[in-house]
Amino acid sequence: MATTQAHTAAAHDLELVALSAAGSPAAFGELVRRHGASVRGLLRRMGADGALADDLAQDAFLAAYEQIAEFRGDGAFQAWVKRIAARLYVKRWRKDARTDLMAEPPEPGGLNDPVQRGVEGRIDLDQALRALSPAERLCVSLCYGAGLSHGEAALALNSPLGTVKSHVKRGLDKLRDRLAPGRDISASENEIHG
Amino acid sequence: MADRTFEMTLERLFAEEPPFRDGELFAARVTEKIHRGWTFRQFLIGSLGLLGGVIGGGQMLSSGLVSRLSVVTAASRHLVSSRLADLASARVLPGGLALNSEVVWMAGALAAVAVGLALTRGIRDI
After folding, report:
1. Do residues A171 and A136 lie in contact, with contact meaning Cβ atoms separated by under 8 Å?
2. How far apart are CA A2 and CA A8, in angstroms?
3. Closest partner residue to B23 among A37, A58, A145, by Cβ?
4. How many angstroms separate the CA atoms of B38 and B72, rounded?
5. Do B23 and A33 touch (CB under 8 A)?
6. CB pair distance less than 8 Å for B18 and A126
7. DSSP letter assigned to residue A74
8. Which residue of A has its CA nearest to B28?
9. How far is Cα A29 from Cα B34, in angstroms, rounded to an integer?
10. Nearest CA of chain A to the CA of B17: how many Å?
């Protein structure tokens, strides 16, 4: 048993995918252990709150397990699950689009927010993303976090390509400003929420 | 060029994983859901199989299939016995082999098992 666990922990992602496709939940569990944080982090960066992000991340992994035979290994497993998770979030976002679009950018998380517990440097992106409108944040995260092309993002959002491109451009401009070297993040926060 | 550099920086920042202290718990929840899903499916498939078997068995009994099969079996046994007698008299089979219908049925069953094993192996290789 211990030998199997050690083998699973040392195995390459593709090997774990093959084992999962053969019906090994333990192998898939190792994949979740390896890539769970990445998927959960992406969903938070897209704009989901902690509970929703975790629910959607779970759904994404379950969907990935169901479709594991379709994963051909022509890309990274993590990227594949991220795309599944991103599409699930977009589906949810489209359902609640009206309220989300009108909502104010979320307040910075409390002490229990895992992102806030992170080391400095990792916080920068999360804080900078809060300066974006929900639509800009979503489009930027889809393209640079989930790896979707502008066209794929437009298709997922059921929005015109030009709209997605302009959201991405505006989002990038804001992020470029916020993430500029030497910029004081706390000053940015004051600008956003002050 | 500067745009592309910034985009690459952004991709790198997105690729950085935020730390989660409950990573193990999250993984455990997902695997538990997978297990629960499989248990439910196995139960569902088993129940449906049992139900189908009961219905099928009931239908077979009510249609008098067993009595019809026994008639057909008796006829085929008679046919096989007569063919074997013909083969034995023609000295086609080795002389020392005590050939009767039971031996033929057993050989047939062994052949079926061999085909089953070959199929299983083939499917596994595919």
Report:
1. yes
2. 10
3. A37
4. 43
5. yes
6. yes
7. S
8. A29
9. 9
10. 5
User: How far is the C-alpha of A188 from the C-alpha of A128, rounded, in Å?
Assistant: 8
Vertex A37, ends A144 and B10: CA angle to 5°? 20
Whether the CB-CB separation of A139 and A100 falls below 8 Å is answered with no
Residue B9, judged by CB atoms within 10 A of its CB (0-12, 13-18, 19+), counts as: middle
- Amino acid identity for residue A58 in this structure: Q
Estimate the crossing angle of helix A150-157 against helix A77-95, to 10 degrees. Answer: 40
- Sequence-distant (6+) residues with CB within 8 A of B87 are B93, B99
Is residue B60 scored above 80 in pLDDT?
Answer: no
The closest CB to that of B14, out of A25, A65, A125, belongs to A125
Read off the DSSP letter of residue A54: H
Q: What is the mean predicted confidence (pLDDT) over B50-57?
A: 88
Chain A residues inside the 8 Å CB shell of B21:
114, 117
Is the model's pLDDT at B82 over the cut of 90? no
CB contact under 8 A, B31 and A25: yes
Q: How confident is the model at residue A141 (pLDDT cuts 50, 70, 90)?
A: very high
Does A36 contact B33 at a Cβ distance shorter than 8 Å?
Answer: no
- Which one of A25, A54, A176 has the shortest CB-CB distance to B34? A25
Contact with chain B for residue A115, Cβ under 8 A: yes
How far apart CA B10 and CA A85 sit, in angstroms, is 19
- From the number of C-beta atoms within 10 Å of its C-beta (0-12, 13-18, 19+), residue A50 rates as middle
Write out pLDDT tens, residues A40-59: 999 999 989 889 999 999 99
